[in-house]
Amino acid sequence: MDRFLFLTFDGLSRGAVYAAFALALVLIWRATRIVNFAQGAMAVATAYVAYSVADATGSYWLGFIVALVAGLLIGAGVERVVMRFVDHSSPLNGVVVALGLVLIIQGVLGMIYGNEFRPAPAPFSRDAFNIGGVALLSRYDLFVFAAVGAVVVLLTLLFTRTPTGLRMRAAAFAPDVSRLLGVPVGGMLTLGWALAAAVGSLAGMLVIPTELGLHPTAMDIVFISAFTAAVLGGLDSPIGAVLGGLIVGLLLSYISGYLGATVAPMAVLALLVVVLLSRPDGLFSRSKARTA
Amino acid sequence: MTVVRDRVATRIASPPMRRRFSPLLVVMIGAAIVVALTYTLPPFRTYQLATVGAYLCVTAGLTVLTGLNGQLSLGHGALMATGAYTLALWQNKFNLLVVGIIVAILVTTAVGAVIGLAAARLRGPYLAGLTLAVAVVVPSITSTFDETFNSDQGLSVMLNPPPESMTNEQWQAWVCWGGALITVLALALLTRGRFGRDMRAVRDDETAARLAGISVARTQVAAFVVSAACAGLAGALFAVIAQSVSPGAFPLTLSLFLLMAIVIGGLGRLTGALIGAVLLVALPAVAHEIGEAAGSQRLEGNLALTFFGVVLVVVMLAAPGGLASLRPFKKKGHR
Q1: Which domain holds residue B179?
Q2: Which segments of chain A have a pLDDT < 50?
Q3: Is residue A234 part of a domain?
Q4: Strands, E, within chain B: which ranges?
Q5: What is the pTM of this model?
Q6: Is residue B332 part of a domain?
């Protein structure tokens, strides 16, 4: 029972990260109907920048802020320079371009930093507190919950309470009408990509210290998990992405806890196959998501 | 209008370019060229030639899948791993190369059928996501069952020495190109007939294809299975060339390289697959030389990676209409 509780909290902590990452995928999907397959590589790139800054200045938090800013910049840059010019006649075009970006980013990172794992220390202790003799949560887990919770709240406020959020939603759902009404649709797309990439960077900063460390391919398996979470939530629904992330996190935690960590990747694949074949519209989606 | 006319033309008239040469003749000329090359090139070049042959198997299969049938697969690196590991396990037990290669193809075909059954129900980013997951996850299976697959170290492949009259490189080139030419011949014959027409019809318009009495799902699964068999053969040939298999030889980037090769080679033509296969060997070799000249180890592999990525993005953005415009027989003035 103790172990079950520990695995549950561990899974929720992992799941929070997947939720944030899935949220970033959903933001871009809603705005542009592109699944950003380069999200993982972009997040790793900002994490590298962050740890370089942290190493140079000795301050993790300065690096953390730099990661978020770098995320905004790389997201806006990718949208402005590349994604804007992708032909939308086939959904595969965006996918292939994003995969090209993955190769570029991983190649450049490898050239600058090398292809070995680099240490990525966590800002808080990852040792779990004992509550009533049961190891449940670490300070780091609390930090993860707080960070992801803040992101979810801020995004909700942005999209439901501010004029900019309204414009972003309008630009995503009816670009032509929005343009007629004076909404700068292109700018809103850039903003959406920037925000999504920043959220992805946050998720990367949160997950990399809990894995093997910094590596150009460090986020590959995280991307798969988050993609599964996003599909589980319907790919169109932010709430679904958050719930999907938590479900995937819990499942992976139980599976690695009871069956061994090496089984976890296969479990992700199996879950993705089951979801895609049985509920391709996701568990929570109201609208039809599988239009492409 | 032109799209419709082109589409009708694709479906009714068999493509004129295809009828010009008999595939058998082309393959025999190809075999003669390869044999001549193996006796003139230095050993390292012959080894590279063998690698081109192995790559050609998988790029030809992918060309059929993506170019002719419009399905994207990022999982073919993993399918190659399946073929390679099957061959390694077979060789270390029985040491019968020809049977081993056939078994590798059969096993990979079976795996491909499973993925293809799922893939036929998925479109666009969902299909890409699923096959991407396959590419990322399958190499990690070697750690899950490390008693069979020996984790990250991989397995060595037991092989009999080549016949005495030829060098090891020559023998590798003959084996790989034998496989490649048979693959190309089989695919050329397969796609020029009814199957090829069905695949193009499904690619261009699923609804119209269904109305014409074509089973869309069956065609898509069949295309996936055919290309999986090609990937299995390629994987087995790579195991023969390297005389070892390890998960590190089949990373996600391999699948992305394959995608790049067929996009640049021109989707849908088997000659494009050959161009792609040559690029897959030539570009890393050039990057290696540059890396050595610069004296930087980090540069070597990563330069090729970056270059492949840039080429992929530039080609996709420069081609108006993206992937579809890269296909032959859809361009105006092609006839």
Answers
A1: 21-251
A2: 289-292
A3: no
A4: 155-156, 244-245
A5: 0.88
A6: no
